[in-house]
Every structure is written in structure tokens, then in C-alpha cells.
Write a structure and sequence with these properties.
Layout (H helix, E strand, L loop, with lengths): L8 H17 L3 H4 L9 H63 L9 H10 L6
């Protein structure tokens, strides 16, 4: 089992496109509300009215599903953007720390004087003075 959490922005973008495409394939509430039927007999009229009411309910639920999927796709996109930003910040901090460590060691690999330790303290806050 991997100890890393990873993401692939292209895969996520593909999934977001898929998430947004599915609701577009669903019929609209207006299309679902179109119910035609026999209205010459009271029983047929009652049944047609019942089907029309259920179609309207279904249309309302379909619109709620569309909005839910849209919000989730938007949240997924924002989460990936935040992960990418955090990754970039972490990479920059790691690069700065490595630069300080590299500057703190001399050509023979021995630690330099106090200038190296003060540089580490400036890049990595919270280290005791």
C-alpha cells in the first residue's frame, strides 16, 4: 500500500468533464413534464394527471441532481487547484531548504560557520535560536 496521496490533474479534468456531461444527457424538467394521455374517461384523466404529477416531481429531482453534480464537479476542480498550489509551495520551500543546506556546507561537506545556521532558521521558522 502506498504512503503517498497523489493526483493527476489531467485525469481529474477528464473526470470533471465526464461529470458535467452526464447531467446534460438527462431530459430537462420541461421535457419530463410533457404528458399526453386519454382524457375522455374520468379514470383515464385521473391516471394521466397522476402521471403528469409524477413527471413534474421527477423533473424537480433531475434538476436537483444536475445542480448537485455541478457543485461537486466545481468542488473537485477547486480541490485539485488547491492541491497543485500546495504542491508548488511545498516544492519551493523544499528547494529553499536545500539551497540553505547546500550553502551551509563547504566544499568538503563540513558545516560552515554561524551563517549557515542562521539561514536555516530564516527559511524554517520554529527552529530554536
Amino acid at each position: 500500500m502506498s504512503d503517498q496521496v497523489s493526483y493527476d490533474g489531467d485525469v481529474v479534468q477528464h473526470n470533471v468533464i465526464n461529470l458535467n456531461a452526464v447531467p446534460d444527457e438527462l431530459p430537462t424538467a420541461a421535457n419530463l413534464a410533457i404528458v399526453e394521455g386519454n382524457s375522455t374517461e374520468p379514470a383515464a384523466t385521473a391516471f394521466t394527471d397522476l402521471v403528469r404529477d409524477r413527471a413534474n416531481d421527477l423533473g424537480t429531482q433531475v434538476e436537483a441532481v444536475r445542480e448537485y453534480v455541478r457543485l461537486q464537479a466545481e468542488a473537485l476542480t477547486k480541490a485539485v487547484a488547491a492541491l497543485q498550489e500546495t504542491d508548488a509551495i511545498s516544492s519551493a520551500v523544499a528547494a529553499q531548504a536545500m539551497a540553505v543546506v547546500d550553502s551551509a556546507t563547504g566544499p568538503s561537506g563540513s558545516a560552515a560557520t554561524s551563517s549557515g545556521s542562521s539561514g536555516v532558521r530564516s527559511v524554517l521558522p520554529g527552529i530554536p535560536q
